[in-house]
Amino acid sequence: MTQSQVTVLEEVCPRCRTSNYQNKSLKLLVNECGHDLCEKCVEHLFIRGSAPCPSCKLVLKKNGFKTKRFEDFTVEREVDIRKRILKDYNKTEEDFGTLREYNDYLEEIEEIIFNFASNIDVEETKAKVEAYKKENFKTIQKNRVAQSRQEAYLKEKTLAEEKEAEERRAHEQECELMEEMERQERKKKLLDQIASSDRPADEILLLHKEEEETVNANKRSLHSKSAYNSGFSIAMISNAKPSDTQVYIYKYEDCEGDTCGPKTSEENIKRYAETVNVSKAALAGGFLQEYVVHRPVDDAYSGLFIFND
């Protein structure tokens, strides 16, 4: 590994020079200026809540530090700006009369984010955002409540699914344990029969094999009858409203257009197809040799009855 590769992989706090090579649990934090600091340096320098950045001397607040997610700070900054702007610009398509109005609204959001991220007309953009927040205060609050409810629902649903999956795994492990105990019990029973019975060992083994096959068949039958969980509850299906639109079922009909040529005979098609090599894998998928020559023969025959006067 070259020195440049080591530099890329290694993360270093610019103040205390601690690296993730020396401390595996090193976590770098970043603030609005974009300069990194490790957690220990943040705790030491910002014990009073605010202090200048050691690199650029910009006064920062301790609660403004967050875990560094991206190597490029411009990406980190744009993500934070987008997150902050979308808290207020949270209208949905249902809040607009037309799709065009909604698309214009989305373009406006992107323009605001670009201006803040690129330091273009920052004061004008701030005034524009503040005016929007005052004008749409009720809509913003309503959509925030709706989003929080949706997030709570999704979180509850995720936890329920994780709990169900955990219970299913525990049940499967218990079933596997029970099957192993039953298998060992049958094996012990077989050995006892061979040791104590006067019947031939081959006959006892044959009976044991038949018993095992019966047990396995019963298990397969139970497994095939088990319900498949598709992720849709009965309530979701029952609440679905039937559509009034009549479904059109397509029916194929052969094209009977005039090709101005002789009709293609199936005998000729089969005769030409005998010279075509097709792999067995293709034939197994339903492909026929006739398909290769049918269209070229049709094209060759078309137009043969057209004569110039």
Description:
The structure is a single chain. With 309 residues, the chain is mainly alpha-helical. It has helices spanning 3-9, 39-45, 73-88, 99-118, 122-135, 137-196, 201-225, 234-238, 266-273, 280-284, 290-301, and strands spanning 28-30, 36-38, 50-52, 59-61, 66-67. The strands form two sheets. It has a three-stranded antiparallel β-sheet with strand order 2-1-5. Helix 6 runs antiparallel to helix 7 (201-225). Residues 1-8 and 227-242 have low confidence and may be disordered.
List the helices and strands and how they pair.
Elements: H1 3-9, E1 28-30, E2 36-38, H2 39-45, E3 50-52, E4 59-61, E5 66-67, H3 73-88, H4 99-118, H5 122-135, H6 137-196, H7 201-225, H8 234-238, H9 266-273, H10 280-284, H11 290-301
Antiparallel strand pairs: 1-2, 1-5, 3-4
Helix pairs in contact: 3-4, 6-7, 9-11
